[in-house]
Specification:
Strand content: 15-25%
Radius of gyration: 34 Å
Distance between the termini: 62 Å
Largest sheet: 7 strands, mixed
Number of helices: 26
Structural class: alpha+beta
Low-confidence stretches: none
Mean pLDDT: 90
Length: 862
RNA sequence: GCGAGAGUGGCGGAACUGGUAGACGCACUGGACUUAGGAUCCAGCUCUGGCGACAGAAUGGGAGUUCAAGUCUCCCCUCUCGCACCA
């Protein structure tokens, strides 16, 4: 018998063999069905963490499984290599972002290889390489030509710490998603992608993504945020101009008593100019529009405003409405102007109460009349129209249509749809990103870089500046350029770089032909591999990355470059990896090694008892991280993989448990020992191949269990990705096999055991590939277990000839009995009624009803 | 506030279309083997009562539908995540 299970030697051995033989390389093969399995590529931050390990383990199991099922599987890996952490690290370590990035890629790649993942490394890409981003620049030019990329001056979210603009998607509760600094508003000229043109299409297709988690689809829909309503014009008094508002409640227009403009609204300054209000308005606008978004977005943020001194006219009621500027009106949504209906909108109500503005009820609820004087909150529900002229007495839902009809007839308004989604701002005042291929010429204005000049290569000799400011504008050669249109020598190159989400919006297409140099990708390769059949990654990308990728795919489709509109057919969002935290009153969070074990556990530094905190997402700040490297050293890749899959189903969060890891290791040792216990016996045997009837009574149950397990594991992996139950099924089989004595030997036994153990190895091979490969070869197979076919179950083995029937009385379990397959209902009734235990419960009572479920259960109602 | 998801033993988690609740694993308890074991093997392990056969209760709480509910319907509670002054 071979020595004990030693993962270290077998894992490095087989990893080497796999690499040398090019086992994971794939090519387009029209004869085989394709399967594109993609995991979200990592940012090369330094080393891989347990989240990566989990994500990529799940993906690797599916990739290996699909290969064994006969698919031509594309399973690539690469690096989302541009981005701010590289710059920050470069500044603090006095190195160059490129160097830092490539060194990280190197370490992380080694780690991934140690995990035994089956990537086709020939297809590796790094987005910071010119041969990658040059095509992104190329597409940018195409988009610019078609007006899909444009420049506009606008208020943008500005992070002072990062010295850059943030997309709305990168602002979380008013703070920068990266550093947590409060986000301010700043006026800048920026490049945008016109994603709002596709808002409707992106929204509609949300319902055609059956392979996506409901949750993600809902998040996308909410993010796009479509509202149906109307745009209505309000004539400004003494001025030949109108204010256009967007409202979802045109039915309440008769109740609109004042107007609120966003502080950033262009009319605000103009209306108050040279009035007594000008100073107040200016001060207010200055304060609010530049005010930190974090406070502006807070729940208890008080509604405030200032009268502009101007009035407008309600087009339906004719009422003279004071025009305010208010902090709750947002320039980015609708038209930046709100017709305020205090009786029926909570914000307007609060505002009106604060400033003593009139409240007019126009929708009366069924329960009784509302009195503006005593109302404590706005009424937003349905009801009958009042104080609305000819519309009085109409249900408000009807009035909504009627009033818009009237406004449309008078050309004072129209039906419209408004989206929450805004255009995608892609400009970053950052160094470590793909340069935007544009030129600013004093004569010609904005001039695109000629296609032949691509790529615009990011200069490597730039020194990063204090505070993270981009060095590109100061770079001696980069910014200076000749105008390609008029030849002027003093034109300037655009020094903004692109948002890194642009790179990650098409990397999956690049994987199809990573070395192609005549375009973004080889259309033939993309036609073969795309769309991605299964995409796997964290929920944190449920909105940003997935929405941008969907949009970018539409752009490519509009250009006729790809034949599909949705890039990802199925999506799996895996849960977080969590662990309990340890906390000391004095020293805060502690690493396990800073704790003395005992009852209770105490802090090594101060001896205070350590509180075992909540189970939280692994993070350095909480000191509850587990380093994959340490795990690989102690247990090996197979145990690590097994534990990640066994501890929880993939979409749920995974609670780390050191004992659980021990358990996983123990199981692998058990499998190893079991196989070696039988190795002598089965090495020269042929796996039993049926029919089942030939088997003795001893071996038949083994054969049956083997096939039941094949079915269970196949279904669990195929339909649901429930690897935890798949593994437990194999554990059951292994437990059963441990009960089969090696002595006395027989050729039947050897052949059934060969089948059983080969099955165990095949079923586990996507999960713990190294161990399985080792035993597989030991059994005499010349080729890798990866090239073996996935086992198929024998239907005959699943059929039971005897069934355990549960006997219930009044729905309560009272007894059990075994019967032959297909025993007639009549017989079952008789058997059940005469059962001794059942008799006890039905004695002296009248049997009212008997329900029989074939081969399963009988319920006697008395 | 709006939206989504989840509440099952000491713990992680099973239970596919309503049909034996607690598979599998961890922890724990007992035993075997051993110089020894924190290795391995065997057994037990939801709670309550009972030596026991057995009986009763139990899937966050409450009602309902059904011969039968962890699963379906309604109400309530708690937790997690996402969005959040969106007119």
């Amino acid at each position: 018998m071979k020595e004990k299970y030693d993962p270290k030697s077998i894992e490095s051995h087989w990893q080497e063999v796999w690499e040398r033989s090019g086992l994971f390389a794939v090519h387009e093969d029209p004869k085989k069905p394709k399967y594109y399995l993609l995991e979200m590529f990592p940012y090369p931050s330094g080393k891989i963490h347990m989240g990566h390990v989990r994500n990529y383990t799940i993906g690797d199991v599916v990739a290996r499984y699909k290969r064994m099922k006969g698919f031509n599987v594309l399973h690539p890996m690469g690096w989302d290599a541009f981005g701010m952490p590289a710059e920050n690290a470069a500044i603090s370590n006095n190195t160059h972002p490129a160097r830092w990035t490539y060194e990280n890629i190197d370490t992380m790649k080694k780690q991934l290889k140690r995990m035994g993942f089956s990537y086709d490394w020939d297809r590796e890409i790094a987005t910071c390489k010119p041969e990658y981003y040059r095509w992104e620049q190329w597409l940018f030019l195409k988009m610019y030509e078609k007006g899909m990329a444009y420049r506009k001056e606008s208020y943008v979210n500005w992070c002072e710490t990062c010295q850059t603009v943030l997309a709305n998607e990168q602002v979380e509760a008013g703070a920068c998603w990266r550093c947590g600094e409060a986000v301010r508003q700043k006026k800048l000229s920026q490049w945008f992608f016109r994603i709002t043109d596709d808002a409707e299409d992106l929204l509609v297709h949300c319902d055609r993504l059956p392979g996506w988690p409901e949750k993600v689809v809902t998040m996308q829909k909410n993010w796009i945020g479509r509202s149906h309503g109307a745009e209505i014009q309000f004539q400004i008094e003494n001025l030949d101009e109108t204010i256009v508002v967007f409202t979802t409640r045109p039915d309440t227009i008769f109740g609109a008593t004042f107007m609120c403009l966003a502080p950033e609204h262009p009319l605000v300054q103009r209306l108050s100019r040279n009035t007594a209000q000008q100073a107040d308005v200016d001060a207010f606008v200055d304060r609010v529009s530049l005010q930190e978004r974090s406070t502006r977005g807070l729940e208890r943020y008080e509604k405030e405003g200032v009268f502009t001194g101007a009035y407008c006219v309600n087009p339906m009621s004719g009422r003279r409405m004071p025009i305010y500027t208010a902090n709750f009106a947002l320039m980015e949504y609708g038209t930046g102007a709100v017709m305020s209906v205090p009786a029926h909108d909570q914000r307007d109500f609060e505002f009106a109460r604060k400033y003593g503005l009139e409240i007019v009820v126009v929708v009366q609820p069924e329960g009784g009349p509302l009195d503006p004087a005593t109302m404590t909150e706005a009424y937003a529900g349905e009801g009958m129209m009042v104080h609305s002229g000819e519309f009085d007495g109409m249900p408000n839902t009807e009035a909504m249509q009627a009033i818009v009809d009237r406004l449309e007839a008078r050309k004072m308004g129209k039906r419209t749809v408004s989206y929450r989604l805004r255009d995608w701002g892609i400009s970053r005042q950052r160094y470590w990103g793909a340069p935007i291929p544009m030129i600013h010429c004093p004569t010609c204005g904005i001039v695109p870089v000629p296609e032949s000049d691509l790529p615009i290569v990011l200069p490597e000799d730039a020194d990063l500046l204090e505070g993270g400011k981009s060095p590109l504008p100061q770079h001696p050669d980069f910014a200076k350029v000749k105008c390609p249109a008029c030849g002027r020598e003093d034109a300037r190159r655009e020094t903004d770089t692109m948002d890194t989400f642009v790179e990650s919006s098409w990397y999956f297409e690049r994987y199809c032909s990573p070395h192609y140099d005549k375009g973004m990708f080889d259309p033939k390769a993309v036609a073969y591999w795309m769309p991605v059949d299964q995409y796997i990654g964290g929920v944190e990308h449920a909105i940003l990355h997935l929405l941008y990728s969907r949009y970018y795919t539409r752009v490519l489709n509009d250009f006729g470059m790809v034949p599909y509109r949705e890039p990802f057919t199925r999506l799996l969002t895996q849960g977080m990896v969590c662990k309990e935290t340890l906390h000391c009153e004095e020293h805060g969070f502690l690493y396990p090694e800073e704790v003395v074990d005992g009852q209770p556990r105490t802090c090594k530094k101060c001896g205070r008892p350590v509180e075992i905190g909540r189970v939280e997402k692994m993070s350095k700040s909480k000191k509850n991280v587990v380093d994959p490297n340490a795990l690989l050293d102690a247990y090996g890749a197979d145990t690590t993989r097994l534990f990640c899959l066994f501890a929880a189903p993939p979409e749920r969060s995974l609670e780390w448990s050191d004992q659980g890891v021990d358990g996983a290791f123990r199981f692998l040792t058990r499998v190893w020992r079991l196989c070696w216990m039988w190795m002598e016996e089965i090495r020269s045997a042929t796996a039993f191949d049926g029919p089942m009837d030939r088997l003795s009574a001893d071996m038949k149950p083994v054969y049956q269990k083997v096939h039941v397990t094949i079915q269970k594991v196949t279904n669990d992996i195929e339909d649901r990705f429930h690897f935890n139950t798949a593994i437990s099924a194999v554990m059951e089989l292994v437990n059963l096999l441990y009960g089969v004595p090696v002595e006395p030997t027989s050729s039947e036994k050897a052949s059934v055991m060969r089948l059983a153990l080969e099955t165990v190895v095949l079923l586990l091979s996507p999960i713990v590939p190294h161990l399985c490969e080792d035993i597989w070869r030991e059994l005499g197979h010349k080729d890798s277990v990866l090239l073996a076919s996935w086992p198929v179950w024998d239907e005959a083995a699943l059929r039971k000839d005897r069934h355990l029937i549960v006997i219930q009385v009044n729905g309560k379990l009272r007894s059990r009995m075994e019967v032959e397959d297909d025993t007639e209902e009549k017989v079952i009734r008789e058997l059940a009624l005469s059962d001794e235990k059942v008799q006890k419960f039905i004695a002296g009572k009248a049997v009212r009803q008997i329900v029989v479920v074939k081969n399963k259960l009988i319920n006697i109602v008395v």
